[in-house]
Design goal:
Blueprint: E1 4-7, E2 14-18, E3 23-29, E4 49-57, E5 60-67, E6 70-79, E7 84-86, E8 92-99, E9 105-113, E10 119-123, H1 124-128, E11 138-148, E12 151-159, H2 167-177, E13 186-200, H3 212-219, E14 221-225, E15 231-235, E16 239-244, E17 247-253, E18 255-256, E19 264-267, E20 270-273, E21 278-280
Parallel strand pairs: 1-13
Antiparallel strand pairs: 2-3, 3-13, 4-5, 5-6, 7-8, 8-9, 9-10, 11-12, 12-13, 14-15, 14-21, 15-16, 16-17, 18-19, 19-20
């Protein structure tokens, strides 16, 4: 049977959330589904920024972001290890946080400014916003789409909990929900939002531009291919050496190009873009 999504009465027309770090959001209800820019993954649209996470508990990760060879930790932020939605400007990323351990669905979102390291969170309870959902305790956030450089859409629905892979958790759910355990046909619409960043006074902590003299200090050393863990690229002051499975496949001199907004190398009339293509080991 196809799931039926039933709308319920939302409790506000416009609301704002502010953080102490200078970020402020305005949330409005949308009448229709909006379409716009979508770019997902740990890398920003142009590959200039990489989201870095490290697991500290079941499905719970610390958060950092990497611009070129500099990694910046985001203090006190805990997120899920996937589901990143980038703005086209590469300034903001929406992180969709999900409970993977108990399969309890979405726990909220984090909006991060990757130039300043400042962020603001909207948690599950704020999205539900006091709505009476009965025993529908599994929130599902979807359709995160950027409508402009500072505005994105978000839709969320709520349904019943089901399997988790943990016998004790599943037993308690079956007792509490009865026939509604793992029911995927009775779903209600919780939010149909337009979220706008209306205030951001956070100061950038790193310049995106990298000077040519800085690149030479960054690049020397051994780097691992992020797409092929058995491939490496090693730089000396004048040479670059490609190895695969321990065998040297290329060995040649290199020089820097005049394209400074990213790290490019040139050798034998060939340009090699290595920005966030190789990660240091």
């Amino acid at each position: 049977m196809k799931a039926i999504i039933l709308p319920i009465t939302l409790l506000f027309l416009s609301e704002s959330y502010a953080a102490e770090n200078g970020l402020e959001l305005k949330i409005s209800e949308m009448e229709d589904i909006s379409f716009g820019f979508v770019h997902t993954g740990m890398y920003s649209p142009e590959g200039n920024v990489l989201i870095v996470t490290e697991e500290i508990d079941h499905g719970i990760h610390t958060l950092a972001f990497r611009t070129f060879a500099k990694t910046h930790t985001v203090e006190n932020a805990l997120v899920s290890p996937e589901n990143f939605f980038w703005s086209a400007s590469e300034k903001y990323v929406v992180i969709h946080n999900i409970d993977f351990y108990a399969n309890e669905g979405s726990t909220g979102i984090t909006i991060l400014n990757v130039q300043s390291g400042q962020y603001i969170e909207i948690e599950k309870d704020q999205i539900i916003n006091g709505q009476n959902l009965g025993n529908r305790n599994k929130l599902a956030i979807y359709h995160i789409v950027w409508l402009s450089s500072t505005k994105f859409s978000l839709i969320a629905s709520a349904g019943y909990l089901g399997y988790s892979g943990h016998p004790g958790i599943e037993y308690n759910r079956r007792v509490a929900l009865g026939d509604n355990f793992n029911n995927k046909d009775d779903i209600v619409l919780v939010a149909n939002w337009e979220v706008e960043i209306i205030n951001d006074n956070s100061e950038p902590i790193v310049s995106i531009a990298v000077e040519k003299c800085e690149i030479s200090d960054i690049i020397i050393g051994e780097w691992q291919d992020r797409d092929d863990m058995n491939s490496y690229l090693t730089f000396s002051e004048k040479e670059m050496i490609f190895t695969s499975d321990g065998v040297i496949t290329e060995w040649e001199e290199y020089g820097f190009s005049d394209i400074y907004h990213s790290i490019y190398l040139e050798s034998d009339d060939t340009y090699w873009e290595i920005t966030l293509t190789y990660l240091p080991i």
